[in-house]
Amino acid sequence: MDWTAVKVITSSEAVEAVSYILTNEGAVGVQIDDAKDFANLKPGRYGKYGEIIDLQEIPHRKNGAAVTGYFPRNVFVPELISTIKGRVAKLKDYQLDPGAGLVVSEAVNNKDWATVWQKYYHPLRVTSQLTIVPQWEDYQPSSANEKLIFLDPGMAFGTGTHPTTRLMIEALEIVARGGESMIDVGTGSGVLSIAAKQLGVGQVAAYDIDEVAVRSAKKNIDLNPVAADVKVGVNSLLDGIHTQVDLIVANILAEIIVPLIPQAFENLKPGGRFLVSGIIKDKADLVERELKGHHFVIDQKLRMKDWYGMIAHKAVEGQE
Predict the structure, then answer these.
(1) Which of 38-42, 65-69, 129-133, 227-231 is least confident?
(2) Which residues form a coiled coil (predicted)?
(3) Which CATH superfamily is 130-314 part of?
(4) Is 278 annotated as a binding residue?
């Protein structure tokens, strides 16, 4: 057995936070099984060979969510279980419902780990223009304006099915006009960078603190020739980055967005747009207050279920 899987049974609203806890404790990747994601599926060709099947026949969770972190065999997972349980329970302190908070572990081998989640991951139309397609699916666009994002998320999360990612892609579709420069903070699977390129954004730099996520992003970029020139690297937020761009996007937790805000202001051109998501309902006021306190103007708020996204711009002196 090559990996140990630690599964946390939680609520849909706590998925991102639990994912962060697992990676912070040493998981090299996560798998998310969220009942709310299944609710987004529409009737279509979900069979192995493209045949139309009843959605109810697809195995899925009926409620809540399970987040599974994968730990390499050199990590002694039993020592981590109590820590993970404690951190999950403390999510209540951040107004996040941890759900059952049950934490269990089991050994898995490479073959099982690599394929276990594929049955839950199908083509998903996320905006009027963009559809996310697993790289193993044979999918044809249904219209001339439909653009495809091919992903093999592997050990990184960010497949486009979670509301926070979908909110960010919608925000990109709203603001992108073509030719902009952009920084993608916390790129994960690289889905936002690829989406931006499909929408005509010009120069894109993508960063993540997790080397596994960076490798995953590079792999996904290779699946999408339109994104071939995206530059991907390891970095903590925008530490050490001093270059002004037109767009900065960040799909991360509100607690991490807050310290990013002054960095984003420094790295945006006057009037440049800052797109953020990953904000649970109870943290929306905090993020909005911090944005306004650092001379950002809120242009639009987006919401999907209990999650919020915001489009803001860097105020030009004397104007808003």
Answers:
(1) 38-42
(2) none
(3) Vaccinia Virus protein VP39 (3.40.50.150)
(4) no
